[in-house]
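Revision sheet: structure tokens.
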Amino acid sequence: MLPGLCSSYGRRLLLVTGRSALKRSGLLSKILDSLAAEGVEVHQMRVEREPSPEMIDRTVQENRGRVVDVVAAIGGGSVLDAGKALSAMLLQRQPVERFIEGREGVMPHDGRKVPFIAVPTTSGTGSEATSNAVISRVGQGGFKRSLRHRAFVPDVALIDPELMVTAPLALTASSGMDAFTQLLEAYLSPFACPYTDAICLSGMERFSGSFIPACTTGARDPSVRADIAYAALMSGIALANAGLGIVHGFASSVGGIYDIPHGTLCATLLAESTRVNIERLRSLDTGHLALGKFSKAGGILAGREPAGVREGCGMLLEQLSEWQELLGFPRLREFGVRDAELDGIVAATRSRSNAVALDAASMRGILEARL
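Predicted:
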């Protein structure tokens, strides 16, 4: 299907892939052969980590004298973000950093792009359905922010669970937790609506029965992988419409300083962030609706209707803690995060779409609990 989709846009393809997984699986050679048979000329680039401004600008310059009719990205979230950013920047003359949200001197993107096809091989970020590409510069003074325009939603999202059955189990776990975090945070967002609620609940229902099998005995079962792929797709649609919460606020502030894979950061922070959110909501007279939503999510994960809101919230926290223990999500200190740096991280963290406003002490407590 991919060769025909590419050729419908033209004959010159910029193919973005990961470092080696697609090649090791033998799929890359098959894809390249099928593209050649379709008469598609391929220029390939490999993405080894989350895309940086320098990587995007360098690749754009390398392709400046080459006509590119279509960009296709086959890989995980970082590969899809790189492909999306390249599609957005190939027709521009300014460096990508001029268009990144929150950067000094930012200017609006005009939306012109090269057609983009997204083919995810992991189930996590939902980038195949979103209008943003996450760009990172890691280190002191670093950032993790978005290049965004409604036109950047992929022209085609080709989702094939067969491409996901060889994903390593640790990657399956971390990317899956990213997808679930997005579903839960979008569901609890103050900007949620009946449309996003339905999407999030549908994604959580499919996720709940297949997440642990995908990380263990069912890893090579396409039907199991299809459930997680569906959940990830729903999470991308939901976040694009409702926003995300404190875990993704930390993903920006912590992820800009430390080289922590995004899914891993979500996985290690979600249980504690959820506990703090619930405790904060319980202290407010206005927190009943959000607590009811947390409770409903707990019932979905437990596979039964809770007796009340308190029990449902407890079921959710119990399940998240169980996943954390079973799958061994690493602590922040394993990536060099230290207590002395937490105040600075908290000061840089923004999360207007969180279920409830958190003060600095609450945010610091989340990080402290996962050091």
